[in-house]
Amino acid sequence: MLGDITSHEIELLIAINTLNQSMQKDLEDYLKYLLCKQYKREMMVTIFHNQLLQSLLQSLLHLIERDDYEFEQVEKRMKQINEIYFGLFEQVHQKYSEVVPDLDTYDLVKE
What is the DSSP-derived secondary structure letter of residue 66? Predict the structure, then answer.
């Protein structure tokens, strides 16, 4: 573990340690705020810029615009979209849930 810590990280830890308890708490709250903002942005970018997801949505749109579409085809496409969406969501969520305690995904993403 010590081999993984850089001198810059050690300097940051020393600086944080010199702050009083109130300032450390303020810094911790601010870092959580920044991480939540970054989480929200990364979540949106990951989901809305995914080419496969866009392609599936586009094909779903073309499918339902036809007069003779089958409900099973729409249902299959929706299941594919759902699986990809939640797979992408889970990847980003795992990354941030490790560093942000009590990450409330619903409140962050609904904004």
Answer: S
- Whole-number Å distance between alpha carbons of 61 and 45: 22
- Per-residue pLDDT tens over the stretch 36-49: 899 989 999 999 99
pLDDT tens sequence across 68-88: 888 899 999 999 999 999 999
Q: Rounded to two decimals, what is the model's pTM?
A: 0.71
Does an H or E element contain 86, and which? helix 71-97
Q: What contacts 93, CB < 8 A, 6 or more positions away?
A: 43, 103, 105
Q: What token pair was written down for 45?
A: 């970018």
Task: Measure the CA–CA gap between 67 and 96, rounded to whole angstroms.
Answer: 44
